[in-house]
Task: inverse folding
């Protein structure tokens, strides 16, 4: 089975532009979460979606938005990019059912804002 | 979720057991201990999790103290490929479709030395 896949792997954008990052979860997983990891820090939670509904949101500005599609894939959108948005963006999928569910991460999208 | 404390770095000789400690003195009764690791520039990799009992899988063993205020991740025979940042995370396991959020700290950078 394929793991969590993210696209693109690398991206360079200019300040003020917007960006869309994509994630396909593991087959059978209905929950997708997004994390931002800046250099030298641990990943920070941005959003979680389950069955196309937002289930959790981290402390990020409204420039960040996301959605989940009927096939459980997801997009993360960031508007009005700032230099500080440069980071590794990680997607994780999980079954989101039962106790002790683990999340599986993709390899991430490296976003550089110049 | 309860806060965790980990040493910033550790060294381990190749072939020896690596013992990574984690303090979580404010852990609640329904909170699980999760361990993830992140090899440079890759997405975090799930290792193991537990609630009360010690756990073992093909990657590692998790030893949780009886009072649950601390735990140790054991890699029985460390190899150079185990060099990574190891994150100890404590979270509530929600049944059904509750919000799934991992709160990462800075982790322990484990260096396996030849």
Result:
């Amino acid at each position: 089975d394929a793991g969590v896949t993210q696209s693109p792997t690398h991206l360079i954008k200019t300040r003020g532009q917007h960006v869309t990052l994509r994630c396909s979860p593991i087959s059978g997983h209905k929950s997708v979460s997004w994390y931002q990891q800046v250099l030298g820090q641990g990943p920070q939670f941005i959003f979680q979606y389950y069955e196309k509904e937002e289930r959790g949101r981290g402390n990020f500005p409204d420039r960040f938005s996301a959605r989940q599609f009927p096939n459980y894939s997801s997009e993360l959108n960031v508007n009005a990019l700032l230099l500080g948005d440069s980071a590794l963006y990680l997607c994780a999928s999980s079954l989101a059912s039962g106790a002790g569910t683990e999340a599986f991460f993709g390899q991430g999208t490296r976003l550089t804002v110049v | 979720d309860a806060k965790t404390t980990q040493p910033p770095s550790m060294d381990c000789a190749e072939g020896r057991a690596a013992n990574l400690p984690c303090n979580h003195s404010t852990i609640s009764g329904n909170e699980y201990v999760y361990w993830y690791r992140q090899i440079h520039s890759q997405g975090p990799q799930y290792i193991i999790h537990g609630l009360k009992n010690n756990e073992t899988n093909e990657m590692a063993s998790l030893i949780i103290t009886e009072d649950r205020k601390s735990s140790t991740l054991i890699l029985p025979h460390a190899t150079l490929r185990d060099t990574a940042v190891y994150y100890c995370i404590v979270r509530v396991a929600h049944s059904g479709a509750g919000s799934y959020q991992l709160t990462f700290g800075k982790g322990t950078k484990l260096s396996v030395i030849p």
